[in-house]
Amino acid sequence: MQSAFNYLTEEQQKQVEQAVVDAEGKTSCEIVPVLATSSGRYDRPEDVVGLWLTIITGLCFWYFFPHTQGQAGDWGVMPVFVELILAALAMVIAFILGAIAGSRIGWLRRLFTPHQQMQDEVAARAREIFFDKRVHHTEGGTGILIYISLFEHVAIALADQAVIDKLGQPFLDQICQKLTSGLQTGKPAETICEVIREIGEQAATPLPRAADDQNELQDVLVLID
Fold it and tell me: How far apart are CA 58 and CA 91, in angstroms?
């Protein structure tokens, strides 16, 4: 699974941070870009994959090692209780391996996790970061959070009410659409920088930077593993 810390090179991270500096030079908005490896725990895939692998293992035992009654005088047949113990042990191991695969392999986790659940988890995590990083606590109420969750392939833009009043919610929705479309092309750094620059340009007139404007939040790319 792609880690937020390895998603962009060090040079690309600096490009994103410079884009924030340039954008905030035009507007009073405080822009905080965040890259997260994942936004939820998602236990269901572990159980589902483990259960399926257990069932498959049980069927394989039944098909390839059918129990046959030994002939008179034949002491080479394995006792039934030993066969049951081995089968149970194999199925336990299969469940554990399936659970590990369900927790480690990204496409398996996405396959067995409902899309709506992932969207809800990303939205909840974005709101949490919005408050934890004090994006909502700027003096003019002009904070904007760009939150990208890599495992779920979901991007969210959150903003204070002052930004929504001036730029409108459709603008934030458009930002999300550009992020998801651009990230699918395999050019993450260019996409994030372009979106940040667009925010700076669009907010420059309705939310201009004042002469005494203070930089209240660090101009850094926040990485969350």
Answer: 7
